[in-house]
Amino acid sequence: MRIHIGRISPALAGSSGDLEKLLDKHGRRTSPISLHKKPLGEYYFAFVDMDLDAKQYSQLCSQLNSVTFKQSKLEIKQAKPDFKQVLEKEKELPAKPALNPDQYLRFKSRGRREIDLFHGRNRESKKIREFPTFRVLINHKLRKPRLRKTKLWGLEKRPLNKLTDHFVNGEWRDADDHAIEVVSTMQDEHARDSELVKTFSTNAAYLSDSDFEEFKQNANTLEDGYSDDEIEIVRDDNQFVAQKHSYSDDEDESAMSVDKPNSVETLKSAFEVDKPFTLFGPVETAEETPKPVTEIEPAPRKGLFFIHKSPYLRSQAQASQLVSVFDSSAWEKEFFERRSEFKGDMKKRHRDAVRIARKMGKKQGE
Questions:
Q1: Kind of pairing, strands 136-138 and 34-37?
Q2: C-alpha closest to that of 52 among 6, 2, 4
Q3: Beta-sheet strands, E only, within 32-122
Q4: Which residues of the chain have pLDDT under 70?
Q5: Domain extents for the chain?
Q6: Domain of life of the organism in this record (predicted)?
Q7: What is d(CA 353, CA 347) in angstroms, rounded to the nearest whole number?
Q8: 249-292 pLDDT, tens per residue?
Q9: Less packed terminus of the chain by CB within 10 Å, N or C?
Q10: Distance, CA of 183 to CA of 186 (rounded, Å)
Q11: Does domain 2-90 have CATH number 3.40.50.1820?
């Protein structure tokens, strides 16, 4: 059995014979102690081969492990076999059968994957929405967000028969077949024009020449005294309208007629200066009541409202029109009389501001 001895101090490494005598008390050594040291290490470590069974090895560890001997706290444990012994054993093993070409190709294609795959897992416990497992950085602190249900519309707020059930003719209807929402789509202007052309063409296809002749005969019998030449059939928006033509100026508007001829007195009154001129006789003028004369109020004078440093504009400023005389004694007297009222008002405003600030802080922290 090969034994590893660690944490050997330089003082103990200088006198390795003392360490060999200590090991001979617990078993027979088959090889001398070989000391080793790492380049940057202060302590030494050693390997030694001993003829021990399991019981003797346990006694050795219990008596020498973690024992201080010449300024070194020893560490005893079983070491790996020597590489020379491993090579000799591998030489004695039988040779492995040679691989066929397919196996070599399989080894050649095997390489490191670009992405490390992690197999998923099936969730056993049901996910609870009220207690999420993720955290969000809020105010430089990781917090679990609370998913509160606010402003929900659906099964929790409306009965089933009030929810939308189906869509018919541009309307969303509920279970009671009542229209909940009407969907109106804006049509293109060219599409509307094309539909109008289609409707006019279809209406014109149904109307034949016989319909025009029949309507013309009926139009001739509308009024007596008019011939066929005086009536024109006009088609306006798929409707027939009979229009009469007049070829003379006799049917113009009749001239204005006067019942009584003007007399000499009427003509004389036209040249009188005192009376107003009238074309059809005297006109009675109603007496007009004089309107009360209201005094024009002068516009309020406003001073300059912008800031300036000119001594010439100081008298025209708005601040100069204010009352510049301040009675400090009257204000001091009023202040001390209403001091308790002012103090209570200020405390109330302070409490309101603190309460609002705390409320806003809690909302941001959540």
A1: unpaired
A2: 2
A3: 34-37, 44-51, 75-78
A4: 108-117, 132, 147-164, 184-194, 196-198, 200-295, 297-308, 312, 314-315, 318-325, 365-366
A5: 2-90, 186-220, 330-366
A6: Eukaryota
A7: 10
A8: 444 444 555 555 556 566 556 555 555 555 555 555 555 666 66
A9: C
A10: 10
A11: no
